[in-house]
Amino acid sequence: MPVILTSGLLYSLAACAEIAGCFSVWAWLRLGKTPLWLIPGSLCLGLFAVLLTFSPSDHAGRAYALYGGIYIVISLIWGWAVEGMAPDRWDMAGAALCLAGAMLILLGPHGKT
C-alpha cells in the first residue's frame, strides 16, 4: 500500500482515537456526563499514542507535525458528524492549507540536496 494511503489511514485512526478521548473529558466537564466517560476516554488516548508509533517517519517530531494536518481535517469531520457543526468555507480552506503542509512534510526530500 502506498505511503500516502498508509499514513492517511494511520493518522486518521489516531485522530479519531485522540478526539474521542478528549471528547470524553469534554462530555464529563462541559456536558455534565458521568465520570465513567473517562474510562473509555483514557483507553482511546492510549490507543492514539500507540498508533502514532507506527508512523512511517523516522523522527517523532516530524510524525507529530504530519499528524497535525490530518488531525485538523478529522476534527472538522467530528464536529460535523458528532456535534452537528458543519464546517464553513474558512474551515475548509484552513484545513486544505494544513493538509497541503502535511503532504509537504510527508513527501518532501528530507536530507537531500
Task: Summarize the topology.
Blueprint: H1 3-30, H2 38-52, H3 60-81, H4 89-107
Give a written overview of the molecule.
With 113 residues, the protein is mostly helical. The protein has one domain. Helix content is 74%, strand content 0%. It has 4 helices and no strands. The chain has helices spanning 3-30, 38-52, 60-81, 89-107. Helix 1 (3-30) packs antiparallel against helix 2, helix 1 packs across helix 3 and helix 3 runs antiparallel to helix 4 (89-107). The longest helix has 28 residues, at 3-30. It starts with a helix and ends in a 6-residue tail after the last helix.
Strand content: under 5%
* Largest sheet: number of strands, sense, barrel closure: none
Global mean pLDDT = 90
Low-confidence segments? none
InterPro entries: EmrE-like (IPR037185), UPF0060 (IPR003844)
Family: Belongs to the UPF0060 family.
Organism: Bombella pluederhausensis
Membrane topology: Multi-pass membrane protein
